Amino acid sequence: MKLNFCCIIVIILCVLFYSCKKDSNRAISNSKQVRSVVYHLLSLDSIPKPYTSVDSFIYDDQSRIKTYVQNGFDTISGNGIPTQYLHNVGLYNFRYSGNSINPSGYTINFLRNGMLISTEDHVVMLNAQGQVVSDTIRGGGGGHNIFKYFYGSGWLARRSPDTTSFYFVDSIWRNGDNASQRTLGANNFASFPGYQRLKLWTYSSYSNQLNPLYSSNSFIVLLFGRGIALNKNIESKVQTISYDPLQNTSSVTTDIYLPTFDSRGLLQGIVNSRTGEKTDYNYY
Questions:
Q1: Cα separation of 129 and 75, whole Å?
Q2: What are the tens digits of pLDDT across the range 165-222?
Q3: Spatial contact of 215 and 33, defined as CB atoms under 8 Å apart
Q4: Can you say how many angstroms the Cα of residue 256 is from the centroid of all Cα atoms in its chain?
Q5: Which domain does 225 fall in, by range?
Q6: What domain count does the chain have?
């Protein structure tokens, strides 16, 4: 599976976010802070292969996430045989003003096999309600470097920067502290004109287990592209509809998630019963 940094950026910065309330962005699970989350996944190639990704967290003395590191371990294969091993890293460092729980900006360094590929510096703007209204990539030109946020009654949306008249829009509908639906779409997909829905997620049930990384801080949510900070409770059942605008087809999958706990009641892992993919949680 070839891991494209542009795809990672789109997923990380466009898929998950929501309204920024005035709550702390600290990890919560019986007062334990999450050190890392390890994902044992399958590639999306024609012949699925296991690969591993690790999210790690470092906190400041106010329990705010200071550094977030995303490690991806993948391979490039030829005729089913691995020909190159890849270690992709996204290193995020947050800046805060005073005692604010919301970052005023952050930098991202992208590395591959130990070599620096690119660096971005972001500036964050909030409104009077503490909601994120824009995320600007410093040094960009015109409107091509600004992520914009829109809010409504029970929903919100984020639009990615325009790049050659192409943009993503991600929308989330919420029921209390948990999402009920989420959609991802784009105005032009693979040269197919017009806005098209690409994916629809429906969250039909949740467990009573609290998410140890849940936060109402939208930056924690939008940067964790796998959705690990999206909901207050761990989701139990999620239906995903994937759309192919070119073929005018769609496919539906339903995933059941089974959590495991240690003797202290701390969340230790989540297993997808359909795919066998597993997520492990480690604490400080």
A1: 44
A2: 566 777 888 888 888 988 888 765 555 555 677 888 999 999 888 888 887 555 555 5
A3: no
A4: 20
A5: 5-283
A6: 1
Q: Which two tokens stand for residue 64?
A: 């705010």
Write phi, then psi, for 148 (nearest 5 degrees).
-115, 150
pTM equals 0.76
Phi, psi of 136 (to 5 degrees): -105, 130
Q: Cα–Cα distance between 19 and 162 in angstroms, integer?
A: 22
Residue 113 — left, alpha, or beta (φ > 0 → left; ψ -120 to 50 → alpha)?
Answer: left
> Pick from 260, 225, 244: which is nearest to 41 by CA?
225
- 73, two tokens: 């371990």
The residue whose two tokens read 């600007």 is: 136
Is residue 236 predicted with pLDDT exceeding 90? yes
Give the burial class of 263: count Cβ atoms within 10 A of its Cβ; 0-12 exposed, 13-18 middle, 19 or more buried: exposed
Measure the CA–CA gap between 31 and 33, rounded to whole angstroms.
7
Q: Residue 142: give its domain's CATH number.
A: 2.40.160
